[in-house]
Amino acid sequence: MEKIVINGGKKLVGEIEISGAKNAAVAIIPAVLLSDGVCRLENLPNISDVSSMIRILSDIGADIKSINAHTVEIDCRGVNSWILPFSMTSGMRASSYFIGAMLARFGKAKIAPPGGCDFGVRPIDQHIKGFQALGAEVTIDNGMVDARAETLVGSAIYLDKASVGATVNIMLAAVKAKGLTIIDNAAKEPHIVDLANFLNSMGADIMGAGTSVVKIRGVDKLLGTSYSIIPDQIEAGTYMVAAAATGGNVLIKNVIPKHLESISAKLMEAGVTIEEYDEEIRVCCTNRPKKCNVTTQVHPGFPTDMQPQMTTLLAIADGVSVMTESVWDNRFKYVDQLTLMGADIKVDGKVAMINGVDKLKSAHVIATDLRAGAAMVIAGLVAQGTTEIKNIKYIDRGYEDIVEKLKNVGADIKRVTYTDVDAQKKAL
Ligand code: EPU
After folding, report:
1. Would 2-19+231-427 and 22-228 be classified into the same CATH topology?
2. DSSP per position, 4-32
3. Is 320 helix (H, G, I), strand (E, B) or coil?
4. CATH 3.65.10.10 at 2-19+231-427, yes or no
5. What's the DSSP call for residue 94?
6. Separation CA 409–CA 428 (nearest Å)
7. Partners of 221 in beta bridges
8. What is the 8-class DSSP label of residue 205?
9. Minimal CA–CA distance to 73: which of 197, 229, 204, 226?
10. Which residue puts its alpha carbon closest to atom 40 of ligand 1?
11. What residues flank ligand 1, with Cβ below 6 Å?
12. Atom of ligand 1 nearest to the CA of 234
């Protein structure tokens, strides 16, 4: 197994290049199932969530040609399976997107419940409501979601929550349905817009992505395409916070500054200097960050996927900050780990009171999920001494070359192979 070891206390200085967006890529990969041609996907992040999604396509018969580390050509014309067992879906929340894509392609899908990071209950009732509105019959059979439709017919669907996953899944199911589908209270995240742009580049007719009303007029055929994934908003935000927390000065390259506005706004409120350019953002922090209150919200609000990283910055800010999580029920599990590093944070339900401390101290911690892992890395960069982070498989799900990227801006960070003695004992 591997762990990340950081000798903290060094300011990050230099340039970091941002990879393609995970949450756009994992929606676009299953969408390729709908194409009657070859799709070339560029700027794919080289992360384990993307390889897992591509492996699912490959396992069900897609022809995958790897062009380079960030580009693949996928031909799904030979796929004829609409069943994904637990062994294929367990590690991946986004595997649920195959329900919408397979329904559209085969009129049926049978998929084991998706896995993914544990933030409490992660229902898919809004996905199912959408499929049913399009005319599908959805049952849970032996723990598998079984969705079937003779014909999918466009419909008006109001989402009770502006769910990213439900919006993606309904778009996938509706893109070849008969007539017009209207998703009201749709999610507006940049990855929704990227998926719509990808589908439109194959010949779909989708309007309004990025607003709360997405209109999808069904088409008969989708063709092959060549498409480049947008840069990752959360990866960029993570390095922005890391630069600020270490008192550094970093130019974050290959970003869409508009996608980062809520993060930039909160960092500026915390006293961090942000300079925006066309496709770059410079983050510079010369003083101790100031307290500020943050509430996570759907886009364009402050993203929940930046909550653990921002909490880590506020843990060393001057004053008491309040972090309110409004998207997930249970996304503060990592706070125990930050506390081990000397943070003073009290969590009450969905609210964390963060009493900023002067310094964090090094410790042996674990990544409790993907963004929590990123928060541990930031904490390790800030803390004096040697921090070790285990469970880094979570970090590898969403951050391409995190160790190399941070090393290039002056961090003393490495991956170290170790033997998990406890796991070995359990296996005996
Ligand atoms: N919800 C329902 N019913 C549903 C679907 C969602 O009640 O049918 C609720 C959830 O319980 C949650 C809220 O709605 O309280 C938002 O869930 P959403 O469906 O928007 O989340 P998701 O699609 O499962 C995606 C990202 C997450 C990110 C959330 C919120 C992907 C693959 N995952 O998850 O990203 O936190 O949107 O923005 O796009 C991450 O990248 O670290 C990550 C967890």
Report:
1. yes
2. EEEEE----EEEEE--B-HHHHHHHHHHG
3. strand
4. yes
5. G
6. 43
7. none
8. E
9. 226
10. 305
11. 22-23, 26, 93-94, 117, 122-127, 161, 163-166, 187, 304-305, 327-328, 370-371, 398
12. 41
The answer to whether the beta carbons of residues 376 and 365 sit under 8 Å apart is: yes
Rounded to whole angstroms, the Cα distance separating 18 from 314 reads 24
Q: In this structure, which long-range contacts are made by residues 422-428, counting pairs with CB atoms below 8 Å and at least 24 apart in sequence?
A: 423/1
> In the Cβ-directed half-sphere of 15, how many Cα atoms lie within 13 Å?
6
DSSP H or E run through 385: strand 385-390
Looking up tokens 């916070």 gives 241
pLDDT range class, residue 178, cuts 50, 70, 90 = very high
What CATH code is assigned to 22-228? 3.65.10.10
pLDDT in tens, 312-327: 999 999 999 999 999 9
Q: Which residues does 258 contact at the CB level (< 8 Å), separation at least 6?
A: none
pLDDT given for residue 121 in this prediction: 65
pLDDT (0 to 100) of residue 122? 77
Q: What are phi and psi of 129, to 5 degrees?
A: -55, -40
Residues 6+ apart with CB under 8 A from 348: none
- Which of 28, 122, 295, when mutated, tests ligand 1's pocket best, judged by the most ligand atoms within 8 Å of its CB? 122
Helices (H), 209-319: 233-245, 261-269, 307-314
Q: Sketch the domain layout of the chain as residue ranges.
A: 2-19+231-427, 22-228
pLDDT digits (tens, 9 = 90+) for 350-396: 999 999 999 999 999 999 999 999 999 999 999 999 999 999 999 99
What is the whole-number distance in angstroms between the Cα of residue 53 and the centre of ligand 1?
A: 17
Q: Which residue out of 39, 117, 285, 292 is catalytically annotated?
A: 117
Find the Cα–Cα–Cα–Cα dihedral 309, 312, 318, 323, rounded to 10°.
Answer: 70
CA distance 336 to 348: 13
Specify the residue for token string 């900023």.
356
The residue whose two tokens read 């019959």 is 137
Return the structure tokens found at 291. Answer: 């307290």
CA distance 54 to 62: 9
Assess whether 117 carries a catalytic annotation. Answer: yes
Task: Please count the other Cβ atoms lying within 10 Å of the Cβ belonging to residue 254.
Answer: 17
